Amino acid sequence: MKLKRIHHIAVICSDYQKSKDFYVRVLGLTPAREVYREERESYKLDLEIDGHYQIELFSFPDPPPRPSYPEAAGLRHLAFEVDDIAEAVEVLQNQDVTVETIRVDPLTNKKFTFFSDPDGLPIELYEK
User: Fold this and answer.
1) Number of domains the chain contains
2) Are 57 and 108 members of one domain?
């Protein structure tokens, strides 16, 4: 087996319209396809970043909350690469998103920070 790249990441949200607004308007991802699956009472929205990687945003009736603190086993966070982290943080803060202080990774000397989506999913910005 030879893996080539990550194809997509699936995110389940508790409030579809709120999360759709966050990922599209606030983060600037591009909707590629949206469907409502009546048999599951679920929306599925495929989101693109610069025409590449996809995030699949799902809604399901009454999903259980995701434990964040203490951190649970499993996928820890979603990370996006940016050219200018200070500029990206300013854009988020101008849209009332709470962002942690920018830090420097001691191993790579690259700047990074975290914020959360509407359901508390940790999202990282990492300056290339």
Assistant:
1) 2
2) no
Phi/psi of residue 69, each to 5°?
A: -130, 115
Q: What is the mean pLDDT of the chain?
A: 92
Is residue 7 included in any domain, yes or no? yes
Q: Domain containing 109: what range?
A: 76-128
Amino acid (1-letter code) at residue 116: S
Higher-scoring residue by pLDDT: 5, 60: 60
Alpha-carbon dihedral of residues 89, 93, 96, 97, nearest 10 degrees? 20
Query: What are 35-85's pLDDT values in tens digits?
Result: 999 999 999 999 999 888 789 999 988 888 777 667 777 778 899 999 999
